[in-house]
Structure formats: C-alpha cells, structure tokens
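Lecture 7, part B: from sequences to assemblies.

Below are the input chains for today's worked example.
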Amino acid sequence: MSETREAWSPSSWHDLPYGQQPAWPDPGALEQALKQVASMPPLVFAGEARSLQSELAQVAAGNAFLLQAGDCAESFEEFSADNIREKLRVILQMAIILTYSVGVPIVKVGRIAGQFAKPRSASTEQVGDLELPTFRGHIVNDATASEAARIPDPDRLVQAYHQSASTLNLLRAFTKGGFADLSRVHSWTQEFVATSPQGRRYEQLAAEIDRALSFMRACGIETEANSSLAEVDVFTSHEALILGYEEALTRQDSLTGNWFDCSAHMLWVGERTRELDGAHIEFLRGVGNPVGCKVGPSTSADYLLELCATLNPSRIPGRLTLISRMGADLVEDRLRPLLRAVTDAGHPVVWACDPMHGNTYSAPNGRKTRHFDQILREVGGFVRAHRAEGTWPGGIHVELTGEDVTECVGGGDAVSDADLDSRYETMCDPRLNARQSVDMAFRVAELLREFT
Ligand code: PEP
Ligand code: CO
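Predicted structure of the full complex, as structure tokens:
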C-alpha cells in the first residue's frame, strides 16, 4: 500500500477517515483558532528533532535506553512551575538510576508540553441521569460534568499552545540552569532510599552510584563545572491526535526543505487511531520528526510490517519507535512474533514498553487504577521476550507525576484500594506517584541488569 500513496502535504490527511475527531460546533471559530496557532512561532526546532532522532538511533542499535514519561493528560488547571519541576525531578532521578544500572545513556522524553488530547473508547458517558459527550482533554473541552463544559471550544487550541510554550520554557531553564546537576539529583534519590519502606532493597545500588560520584570528584571532576554532568536534554512528546492543531504547527525546515511538526520533538499515534489508511498515519508519515506508534495485543505481524514501511520507508534508524502495550499476561507471547517479523524484515526500530495502558482496571470503589506489580510484570515479560528473540528492550513509556497522588495501587508505600480516594487527581488515567516512579526505576534497573 505504501507504494501507492499520493504525495504528502501537511493537509493530505484531510480527506481520509479521521477517528476520534471532536464535534467542534462552529467550523468558523475552529478555523480562526487554527489560523492563530499557525501564526505562532514554532515550539521546537527541526535541528532538535533531528538530535532526538540520532539519540533514538543509538537506542535502536542497543547502545542507549529510552525513558518516555509524564502525564496521561496535562491539565490547564494544575499548571504550575512546582508541578513541572517535580515531574522533571522524578524523570531525572529515574534516568540516573537507569544510567548506572544499564550502563548506557538514557534518552529522556517527556509526555509533556503538549500532551493534552485524549482518545476515548466511547463518544458519550453516563453521569447520573445525564448522558454527556466524553471529556477529550483540555485542548478540546472541560471535564466538569455538564453539557456546556463538554462542548468542544476552539479557543482551547490556542491556550494549549501557550501552556506548551511556557512549559517548554521552564523545562529548558531547569535542564540547563543547574537543577539537573548529577550530584544533586542523586542526593534526592538517597533521601528516597533512606525514607522508603523498601529502601533496604535499593541501598546497595544507591551506594554504588554514590561511590561512582565520589570517585569522579576525587579525580577532579566536579559535576557543577562540567556541562555534560550538570545539564541534560529532556525532549518533549505527545499523541498527535488533534490533527488540525498539529498541521498548524507544521513548518518547513529552511535547512533541508523537509516538514517538521514543531509542536513537539516526537509525536506518536495511539492504539485507537493507527489505521494504515487513516488520517493520523497519513499525517505522521510526512513529518521529519521521530514518530512512535502504540502496539496493542491485537496487532498482527503483517500490519506491523506495513506500518514500518509506511512510516519509515527509508529505514532510518531512530525514526520509528514501536511502543508495545499488551497487558502483563499477554506481552511475552504476543510480542515475540512481532519482534521476529520486524527484525527479519530489517526494520531498525526502537522497541519500548508501555506497561500502563494494558493493565488498567476498576477498583471496588469504581476508581480506574493500575497495580504496581502488574506494571512491573509487563516490563518483565517485555524484557524476557527480547531476551528470547535476541533483540534490545529499548525503553519504557510510563504515566507518572511528581506529586504525592494515590492513583495506582502497590509499590513501596503499599497504596491500597482504600487509599485511592484520598488523592486521586488525574485528568484521565491513573499515574505512578513520585515514590512509585523511583521505586519502578530501581526495579526496572534490576530487570535490565539481569539482561545486560
Ligand atoms: C495514552 O498513551 O495515554 C493512550 C491513550 O494510550 P493508548 O493509545 O495506548 O491506549
Ligand atoms: Co493514558
């Protein structure tokens, strides 16, 4: 099919089936909002997206590991410097634990600065007596349970742009301005180990990292004075769902003439919108950014090979990341034939594990949750599948927050079903809290240590 595709343009998706499209009530207002977004400066630059692609090429080759993490859905209301800083802090802590254990660079990509739109399994939901249009993320409508709040509002597209710009600005400041200093990030982890009920289990690894840092200092390497140890790159990513918004930020790179979606460094297509003949794949195939695709348990090898041929016909390493989200019970069996098919066909992909979206269930009180142990079990199955097929388990893709929420159960602090109501704050799916996330990094580090 890929051979018969027409020429691509930023608008060539317009006539194709477009799943998950919000019912914007006023086409004129939508057009106005998109025009406004199209007149704004790019949020990221083509050269940055190319750098991420080179780093991901290292992941594809087995020389680096991808940590993609952040909110399920960013919120217009919970938007603050503290919130962004805490999320970044957790990502940096996880990255150091993984760097030390896996012994390769960690490519850090946030689900941040643009992760606003949500695909939904149904277009309406029942709230008491009301049947309401579903909440589709703050870039579209509001979560409040009223008919008025759920009407898609195009002004939100402009607000999403501005919030992304402020978030990115702060991320750039934090990652280059001393906050990310290696010694400092490690001191937070030591504090975690000292106060975690599971701390003992991690003492040895944390002490090893500490000794490595002391060794460096003794050799005269001060982390603060060394930009490769005091500064980091954190790239941005989100699901490319609202294609009008993505198109409005798609710009031609003056250096190469190629088109880049300048709303984020990396874009992915979700499990519900990845039809080969659909609008979302059509849009992503033409942008120069690194792209990802979710791969659920029903994915066939034939589909995946066609997807690889469509999104990465030139087989550029780092261009395509396949993010499997199978569920803990299925991952090992379902993933193995896919690993084999893609490897045999010679496609240089990054394989990442999203252990969140296949492991969601309803707790007795009706809260959507995920169990820490199931999440870990999916990563375990993912690693085992790769070991069996001789491929590189290239990364993890997780939903987390830097706040002390109670949305996922289990983990070192043993959040229970009964705790879920106390701080359940997510706009959409349940996220790991800060301590569960660091806990997870140590556990994943153990799994990968066995691998490498
Ligand atoms: C998500 O990543 O938030 C998501 C909706 O995932 P998926 O498309 O895999 O269901
Ligand atoms: Co989610």
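Note for the exam: The mean pLDDT is 95. Keep this in mind when comparing with the next example.
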